[in-house]
Amino acid sequence: MPGSAFLRGEKVTLRTIEAADIDVLCDLPNDPDVWPYLHNHLPKHRLSARENIEEQVTEDTSVEFLICVGKNRKEPAGTIGFTPATPVNGSAELSIMLASDFWGEGYGTEATRLLTTFAFAERRIHRLFAEVIDENVGSCRILEKLGFRQEGRLKEAAYHQGRYMDLLLYAILEDEWEWGSMENIQDE
After folding, report:
1. Across-strand partners of 97?
2. Is 18 a member of any domain?
């Protein structure tokens, strides 16, 4: 049974993650097109996916959704969420993972806009940040399009596929966020 729709945009619905989503939670990070862009990644197993779902149910600080697209916006396309890194300071780390079949369609941009607005408006987050492998041009473009700025480069901070890669640190503050409608997003 699919989770409840929580946030709706023009192209995507962000819905709660349920036990029935274990296949998606395992297959997505294990996809050979996706995992090279994830730092700190090991193969995902069903047992760890099940534990992850159980943690989300009992934890009230992290937020994670399934990104759904398609005609009825029910087809799973990825995940998006944030975890407070320093709750006292109001800082949280954004993460998004989108299946390669859905890249370049504007889904990641819309999902990130919905989640960022939710974080600032409803969860009292003051600063949202993301760490992105420097070769992940698509994620960098999404963040820059939405007004996140690159705050720094962590030299050789990720090890992947036999080599060290730089991580780019992007962030945006609540008072820098443009609260406009979804119509302001222009796909490239």
Report:
1. 79
2. yes
